[in-house]
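Q&A log
Question type: sequence-to-structure
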Amino acid sequence: MTRALFTLLLICTTALSWGQNTAEQKKLEQQKNKLQKEIKEFQSLLSTQNKKEKSVLVQIKESEAKIRLTQNLINTIQKQSRLLTDNIYLNQKKANKLEKELEVLKEDYANTIVKSYKSRSDQSRIMFILSSENFLQAYKRIQYMKQYANFRKMQAEELKEKMAELEALLEKLKEQKKEKENLLAETEKQKKELEADKKGQDALVKVIQKDKKKYAADIKKRQQDEKKLEQQIQKLIREAIAEENRKRAKENGKSTANVSNTKIELTKEGKIISDNFKANKGQLPWPVERGYVSQPYGPYRGQADGVKVHSNFFNNGLDIATSKDADVRSVFGGEVTLVTHVGTFDKVYTVLVRHGSYVTSYTNLKSVNVVKGDKVGIKQTLGKVWTNEATGETVLKFYIIQDVSLLNPQQWLNPLK
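Response status: OK
Response body:
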């Protein structure tokens, strides 16, 4: 009884582990496909752009983006390979167990056939029944013979099933081993590309090292501009929240003197929009049709190798490099709360779109198609991305804010399709 319970527990644990591995494999495959699409998009965009028009710092930034994408791809493939190795090991154990069970079944079936052969004549079966002491014993012997015949049939069926199961498992093992070979080959290919990218970056760094002071000043200025931009956007959002709350207080006949500038008071409609936006986390479309993440959300080194400026810089948004004159699209339905010039260039626009308690911010637009108060739908064009002629960059700066808290946009956007 104890042994049976242990076997059942082992089977359940193995099945659960297999299910988890399958789900993890699927997740890793999706992640790999996403990274491959981003790398493909990166290469496609670079092939259409004039390298001579770009500054060395921009080229280094692009090189770092490519290295980051390739390294992430290698890490994902290696995780897939490790998971596949575990699955191969489990399947091999299962195959070994099946082979042993099959040997026992074959032996039992062979013994049954031998016994059947020895008592194969109709006469011996009839004599077995007629030699019964009474009618009840004769009836039981007839039933026994029927059960024995059924048992032989069941043995044959079980033998067939085990053989088919083993054959399918061995075929799966063959496929998994082939898949692992492909993953290892892909890893080697990506490692070679990574090495080539790093060599290219080293060549660019040598150019910078010839004039460290100049490039250090450029990097520092870019960081200061980034910080200033975020502060300006935060200020504008606080002002917009206060304005909306004053409007709401006035409508309700309340005092407008001490309204909050950090949390918006939502109407019933605003609450529904806010909940819908939240429900679509991870499914929002990209704010541009094509592009790649040139600088992700989070901390990054504020330097080009050899020209250190700032070691604790943090990107609170998402920098998306795209093609020249690319359309900027709203990632969700909402209301335009602000269209203004923000940043160091007067000709560059920022558009804020409110979705209940959430705001999406689109910065670095050279032209806009909307005005304050416009209702916009999902993927509706807001304007076109600006290209910095001095650096050759065409980058959209994208933020997602809840009240005044800056969120990680990469957790909200759907993988680029």
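Response note: The two ends are 55 Å apart (CA to CA).
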